Amino acid sequence: YGDCHPVAHIIGQETYKRSKNLEQTLAQCSNTCFDGCLHGALGAAMVEQLDVEDPDIDLVHMEPERIETIGAKYCTGFANMPLCHGIGHILYSLTRDFKAATKSCGVIAEGTLLDECLTGVYMQGVGGVSDSLVLGNKVPALADMPDNDYGYPCSAIPRSAPQNQHSCFKYLPPYQNILFAKNNIADPVEKRGFVKKNCETL
After folding, report:
1. φ, ψ dihedrals at 66, nearest 5°
2. What's this model's pTM, rounded to 2 decimal places?
3. Cβ(104)–Cβ(64) under 8 Å?
4. How does pLDDT run across 77-133, given as a tens digit for each residue?
5. For the stretch 160-176, what's the b/e string if a residue is b when 16 or more beta carbons lie within 10 angstroms of its beta carbon?
6. How far apart are the C-alpha atoms of 115 and 133, rounded to whole Å?
7. Residue 82 contacts by C-beta under 8 Å, 6 or more apart in sequence?
8. More reliable by pLDDT, 156 or 58
9. Cα three-residue angle 62-66-69, rounded to 5 degrees
10. Which spans in the chain are helix H?
11. How confident is the prediction for the chain on average, in pLDDT?
12. Which ranges in 129-187 belong to alpha helices (H)?
């Protein structure tokens, strides 16, 4: 995989430069090449939106703890909402852990910006999600997903963190679709039954 990651960086950068829309670009990136496309897109957005091109600030490859230390300045102000959303993507790609990634979002953001960061976490957890929430081959298997919990990962949010629920529920349908595929459930009526039952438990 020698050149895979840096080449994917360039693809992410160029895709972002064409669309100028970070969320749209991230939805087009896959998780291959160690998230290189994701990293390149966010790096390009940082340079454009914050004029940050410092070799010592490599946010997309930092440890989550380091992002927590310096990341708050990237999650302030309405203009930085797409960037804060992108940081949520990065946090999940680094940790592969909803609890750890959402905790880091809580350290660096609040209010609407926190929701943007958390949305990035849940969007990345389901593989990026292309337009209209159509699932493709890039959707991960999510090995830790319970076999019959159609509320996952939202059902795992502790009651002490209700602010996480809104962003998680936005992406609950794609997670449910992963579980439908895993359990060989294809009938639309049967799917709606599971979804309805899940809603009624909330």
Report:
1. -70, -40
2. 0.75
3. yes
4. 877 788 888 888 888 888 888 999 999 999 999 999 999 999 989 988 887 654 434
5. eeebbeebbebbbebbb
6. 19
7. 21, 22, 23, 45, 49, 116
8. 156
9. 145
10. 4-19, 22-28, 32-50, 64-70, 81-95, 98-108, 111-125, 165-170, 172-182, 188-200
11. 81
12. 165-170, 172-182
**Terminal C-alpha separation, the chain:** 44
Q: Cα 128 to chain center, whole Å? A: 6
Tokens 């896959």: give the residue. Answer: 30
* Rounded CA separation 30/41 (Å): 12
Question: What is the model's pLDDT at position 118?
Answer: 94
- Give how far Cα 194 sits from Cα of 23, 38, 122, 178, Å: 30, 33, 21, 13
Give me the phi and psi of 16, to 5 degrees please.
-65, -45
Joined together, the tokens standing for residue 40 give 């390149």
Q: Length of the chain, please?
A: 202
Q: CB-based burial of residue 112 (10 Å sphere; 0-12 exposed, 13-18 middle, 19+ buried)?
A: exposed
35-85: pLDDT as tens digits: 778 878 877 877 776 555 555 566 667 788 888 887 787 888 877 788 888
Residues 6+ apart with CB under 8 A from 174: 126, 127, 129, 133, 135, 139
Closest C-alpha among 45, 46, 53 to residue 20:
45
